[in-house]
Specification:
Strand order of the largest sheet: 3-2-1-4-5
Oligomer: single chain
Radius of gyration: 15 Å
Structural class: alpha/beta
Strand content: 25-35%
Number of helices: 4
Order of helices and strands: EEEHEHHEH
Largest sheet: 5 strands, mixed
């Protein structure tokens, strides 16, 4: 199984507002950057989309070292997702899970990979995290320009 490094970030200009997501994939010394945006979204949706698009870009099952600055995505994937599924997409308090469409998509994207989650504090000089932050903000700016 190939080992891949995946760095992700999402950004939103206003919350909700125009948003962007970005991914840096690294495999055997090669890097690939992916990014995109939406005109009306939230920061959490863009953080989720970054991870989803990164995992969906992998063509075969991989060992993925996934680095994110989003506690929401990391804790959701590691701690909450199984319970949400068993409760038919309800939180522990019985409320519908927010962003269910993206959580379902993330769950499907994770199934064929072995994901090791790593959290980094954002805006603290982590080189790859800073890079995807710049790309996500640029994608959010582009999305904002499209609606003008």
């Amino acid at each position: 199984m190939s080992r891949v490094e995946l760095y992700t970030d999402g950004a939103c200009l206003g919350n909700p507002g125009p948003g962007g997501w970005a991914v840096l994939l690294r495999h055997r010394g090669h890097e690939r950057e992916l990014h995109g945006g939406e005109a009306d979204t939230t920061n959490n949706r863009m953080e989720l989309m970054a991870v989803i698009r990164g995992l969906e870009a992998l063509r075969k099952p991989c060992m993925v070292e996934l680095t994110t600055d989003s506690q929401y995505v990391m804790r959701g994937a590691q701690e909450w997702l199984t319970g949400w599924i068993s409760r038919k997409w309800r939180t522990a308090s019985g409320d519908p899970v927010k962003n269910r469409d993206l959580w379902e998509r993330l769950h499907a994207a994770m199934v064929s990979h072995k994901v090791e989650w790593k959290w980094v504090r954002g805006h603290q000089g982590h080189i790859e995290n800073e890079r995807v932050d710049v790309l996500a903000r640029q994608a959010a700016e582009a999305a904002r320009e499209e609606i003008r």
